[in-house]
Amino acid sequence: MTVSALLNAQFLAAIVMTGIIWFVQIVHYPLLATIGPGEFCDYTRRHQILITWIVGPPMLVEVASAGALLIIAPLLLLSPAYTAALGLLFVIWISTAVLQVPPHGKLCQARDEHNIRRLVLTNWIRTIAWTARAVLLGLVGTTPDVLA
Known about the structure:
The chain has helices at 3-31, 37-72, 80-107, 113-141, 144-147. By secondary structure, it is mainly alpha-helical.
């Protein structure tokens, strides 16, 4: 794959994830508070399984294309926009692992208002990071000297 194709794949995946994360932030996570205790555990278990099919592919495309670019085009790190976008990818994955996955696991056991609020609040990190990442990757893709 060419540098341009990898950048485009990464940009497209970031755009997809930006749309998904805004939906999760504004609609999905807040609606967790409206699900009754009787259905809650089943709902959250099903959510975890189904959401993986939606977010898994673009998240993996982001990581794979970023890794490939580090190998075949390390000079991209000279671009402040690309370096910042790469840093945001780390922020997103760390936030997912440390701040989102544990409350989801707890919510699969019992409905807990604290964990629902925690998900909504801490998910702003990923929402802002993916939005900024998409913008930065868009800038990188429009800067011809970065691709040279």
